[in-house]
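INFO batch 0412 | record 1 of 1 | parsing
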Amino acid sequence: MTTVEKFLKKPIFSLIFSVLLGFLVSSIILVITGYSVPDVLQSLFEGVFSRPRHMANVIIKSTPIILTGVSIALAFKAGLFNMGAEGQFILGSVAALITGSILDLPPVLQVLAIIVSGIIAGALLGALTGFLKSKFGAHEVITGIMFNWMALHFSNFIVNLKEFHKPNSASTFPIKSSGFTGIRSNLGFLKDTSFSDILKTEVNLGIIIAVIVAIFMSIVINKTKKGYEICAIGLNEKAAESAGMNVFKNIIQVMTVSGGISGLAAALMVTGISPHSVSASTNFENNGFNGLAVALIASNSPIGCIFSGLFFGGLLYGGRSVQADVGTPSEIINIIIGVIIFFVAIAKIFPLVVSKFSKKNCEENHA
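INFO prediction complete | emitting tokens
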């Protein structure tokens, strides 16, 4: 096998090729619908990279989906499909709101209490999903979808309680200011630089925490006994059980941690991004569902979720510029994302195709 063939069979090539194919097919769709591909790509690129403020907003947009991506990637490692990440995120935001509204502690303690409450809320919902899966065989996709809707309606119920509801609005009062994690005040040294417009954004500590969580979970999965057990269960549950691993316990633990990470993502949103409140909604905000795409693009690598989350966040944020500058409907960006995800989902075909052609060439050379 040549060096080129070895590279073509690597997962990173499959991913890059999938993304390029996604953009190619999306370009064809744009041409068919009458839009200029260069104009769309230029607008998308400028919408992300033209100003430091835009790059900061991409990071802000990416932070929650990096964490939900890590959450879902962890569950995937154990052979579990955490479709309930959206509900865990919602419940985490509700818990963070209640904690941040009721308590009025010194800033560090207030932020810590809010974050811990969000983690616990998401973890409890994840643990319940894991328990139903391991004890009764209830599929985590079905229970996850059910809990998503329950969490959404519970959130709406809390928003409309007189203790939290902000009059003449569809949202709650913001949490106490001591629970804010924005870092504008710590970036004063940027005031007279080209990066000064970052101060106009909702930059917060969330991205730092997200990166730390992704790195930590990567170490756990790849370097610890618990990570080995998780991966073994994901590859073959019966074989892992025969080897003495406690499948029941591990499934609950994985879903608990997975739910806790989604709850953490929500808590960081409440503390870090204005208006620091929760709004009533008839549908999902898709922070959990977008995490599915992030985990898929990252091939379930926690470290990969950092980069795929930023890529995904860039598409979502840059898509606004495309809509404003070129006049394309918002669905165009969704189509681009959907096509890329489709090709990423079938990326494993590419190494098989390379192997087939490699074998065919080898046979022809020996003929």
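INFO post-check: Residues 60-318 form a domain with the ABC transporter involved in vitamin B12 uptake, BtuC fold (CATH 1.10.3470).
INFO record closed
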